[in-house]
Design a protein that fits this description.
Helices cover 47% and strands 21% of the residues. By secondary structure, it is α+β, with helices and mostly antiparallel strands.
Length: 349
């Protein structure tokens, strides 16, 4: 569901809930077909049951004339149905900030209402709900949708709108736990930014990360790496051995740099390492040491090696595009590759 459709669906349900709260049971219930969001569907089903009960109330009142008594009974039904919902439904007095109604509230032994422990533990942001001011979020006569983070990395979507509740100016807050939704979205995003073969970042992440560096004009050092002889290893010893060769190289680079440094696979045998600050000389010395240790690995069947080129991104003074930066790094990498070829003439790239 697109944002516009979602806003229209929430608006329709909010209008209907507002009508119920004011005692108007003749309002038209929104069509279920427009509600793609699961939490909205659940709220819709509850409102549908309430409307059906309202129809029964009107029919009974026509026969007995006891409309007021039946309405009171039906309001109790409304409260009972809402208490069974997973969402929180809070009605807050706009002036006194008192919670006039909470569907999670339970009756105490003395007959008075008390906020249940569930609200205290899970709605750690309850003070924000009580102090909420619609004027800060847009049109005071319309609903507003906002999000809050709770304790223990939990997340909630809140739909808020003004309503008159028992002759008091109030606000209704419908609070939905969207923690699973957030986690799923994070997992999908993480998957989209990961190289499945190595587990490190992929080209998409690298390009977006570099776009941020260039846009914010930050100083950075980019090291472009090419794993020498991967095609030879794949063709001669098979792709399983080629994968092992890649993993050994990736683990070597990762073990020599911080987790905060961005290391991404940008092609089959191509990788990019991005570090904060302009530290080309330092990284050049470090990469030379890492290359020497990698070439010293006694693999038996083939020579381990990689080539690299380093470029500094000058932050505020930078005028290069990402393509131009990569071209500069690629040229430096080929200088390194020529030296490797002189050292290991039989090395196939």
């Amino acid at each position: 569901m697109c944002d516009n459709d979602l806003r229209q669906a929430i608006s329709a349900l909010a209008d209907y809930a507002r009508a119920l709260a004011s005692g108007d049971f003749s309002a038209e219930l929104p069509e279920r077909g427009v509600l793609a969001d699961e939490s909205l569907k659940g709220l819709y089903e509850s409102l549908l049951k309430i409307r059906e009960q309202m129809a029964a109330v009107r029919e009974e009142s026509a026969r007995t004339g006891r409309y007021a008594a039946l309405i009171e009974n039906d309001n109790e039904l409304l409260v009972e149905l809402l208490s069974r919902r997973n969402e929180w439904l809070l009605v807050v007095d706009t002036d006194s900030k008192e919670i006039l109604y909470c569907n999670k509230r339970r009756n105490g032994k003395d007959g008075t209402d008390a906020v249940c422990e569930t609200c205290k533990k899970r709605l750690s942001f309850q003070s924000e709900l009580l102090e909420w001011k619609d004027a800060e979020y847009g049109d005071p006569d319309q609903y507003n949708v906002w999000e809050m983070e709770g304790e223990g990395e939990t997340f909630y979507r809140i739909t808020s709108f003004p309503v008159e509740w028992k002759d008091k100016n109030s606000h209704v807050h419908i609070v939905v736990d969207i923690t699973d939704e957030k986690r799923m979205a994070h997992a999908l995003t993480s998957k989209a930014y990961r190289d499945p073969g190595t587990g490190i970042r992929n080209r998409l992440f690298f390009e977006e990360y570099m776009d941020g560096i260039l846009r914010e004009r930050r100083d950075a050092t980019l090291c472009y790496l090419d794993l020498d002889g991967l095609k030879y290893v794949n063709d001669t010893f098979g792709h399983v051995e080629g994968d092992i060769y890649i993993q050994n190289f990736v683990e070597l680079i990762r073990s020599n740099f911080r987790n905060d440094d961005t290391f991404a696979r940008t092609g089959g045998d191509e990788f990019c390492l991005v570090l904060t600050g302009r530290i080309k000389d330092l990284i050049d010395r470090k990469m030379a040491e890492i290359l020497e240790s990698f070439q010293a690995v006694d693999n038996g069947d083939y020579q381990c090696s990689f080539s690299y080129g380093i470029v500094e991104v000058e932050g505020k003074d930078n005028e290069w595009t990402l393509d131009e930066i990569l071209q500069e790094a690629d040229a430096a990498m080929y200088d390194c590759k020529r030296r490797n070829k002189e050292k290991y003439p039989a090395l196939v790239r």
